[in-house]
Design brief:
Layout lengths: L8 H5 L11 E4 L5 H8 L9 E4 L20 E8 L6 H17 L7 E3 L3 E4 L2 E13 L2 E11 L18 H4 L6 H21 L1 H11 L6 E6 L2 E11 L3 E6 L4 E4 L4 E6 L1
Parallel strand pairs: 1-2
Antiparallel strand pairs: 2-3, 3-7, 4-5, 5-6, 6-7, 8-9, 8-12, 9-10, 10-11
The chain binds biotin (BTN).
Biotin (BTN) binds next to α2, β3, β6 and β7.
Length: 264
């Protein structure tokens, strides 16, 4: 079935009650990457909270140098620009993951889980990914939270090698996903959790842990090209994932360079 509805900034804005996120909303039919567009706006600090959506990306990026592909008008492809008061990189990664998991799980229909650092899974299959990038202009730091949520995809829309490990909201639900609703919910949840992160970072950590697929599990992770095996015993909002190695040594792993390769 060809996609028929397109995202409309006015419809996303209608009734939106956010304080910071999505005060300005831009929707592109096609662009290279929404993260690149948000980076262009980062020069002006007044653009804090800007939300950039696209129906299609020609150079969508994922973590660790991977590409992020989606057929036109089937996903939420969105970047949020933060030019002020951004949590540190670790806490921002946890905050974004909690907000996206809650966006997907809002009606309580979908038990969305988080795989470190910020893959969102349903039924052990990836439904959303997050790429956080930062830029510095005139000594000021800006963060860009790039989010891709699979919404309308059928199994055949995913590349063959991803079909057994990826899913979409439509594949998980008997009814058709309303992307405008998901976009509104995403902005609302990000607004809420970013505010929470400033005042009560421990609440973000606590929620992240309840959604984690790793807590107390024995895992193998790759950090800067090296493998580490141990038990995940928690998360530190400054230092990252906390692993108790087999030697009993406790080591921290930052989100940006860590990937879990095995949940034993
Ligand atoms: C990952 O899981 O590897 C992260 C994927 C992030 C994809 C989103 S789509 C919107 C934004 N623009 C990009 O180029 N990437 C992010």
């Amino acid at each position: 079935m060809p996609p028929t509805e397109y995202l409309d900034p006015d419809k996303i804005k209608a009734g939106l009650e956010t304080k910071r996120i999505g005060k300005e909303i831009i929707v592109y039919k096609s662009t290279s990457s929404t993260n690149d567009i948000a980076a262009e706006y980062a020069k002006n600090p007044d653009n804090d909270g800007l939300a950039v959506f696209a129906e299609q990306q020609t150079k969508g990026r994922g973590r660790n140098g991977s590409t992020w592909q989606s057929p036109p008008a089937q996903s939420i492809l969105c970047s949020i620009l933060l030019t002020k008061d951004s949590p540190n990189a670790e806490l921002l990664s946890l905050t974004a993951a909690v907000a996206v998991a809650r966006t997907i799980d809002k009606p309580g229909q979908f038990p969305a889980k988080i795989k470190w650092p910020n893959d969102i899974l349903i039924d052990n299959k990836k439904i959303a990914g997050i790429l956080i990038e930062s830029k510095t202009f005139n000594g000021r730091n800006a963060s860009i939270i790039g989010i891709g949520i699979n919404c309308r995809q059928k199994k055949s829309d995913f590349p063959t090698q991803l079909r057994s490990i990826a899913t979409s909201i439509d594949l998980q639900s008997p009814s058709k996903c309303d992307r405008t609703l998901i976009a509104k919910r995403l902005l609302t949840e990000l607004d809420h959790w970013l505010e929470t992160a400033q005042a009560y970072p421990e609440k973000v950590v606590e929620t992240w842990l309840t959604l984690s697929t790793q807590l107390n599990s024995r895992i193998t992770l790759t950090y800067n090209g090296k493998n580490f095996i141990g038990r995940c015993i928690g998360i530190d909002p400054q230092k990252g994932l906390t692993l108790q190695l087999d030697s009993d040594l406790v080591k921290f792993f930052p989100a940006a360079h860590t990937t879990i390769t095995k949940n034993h």
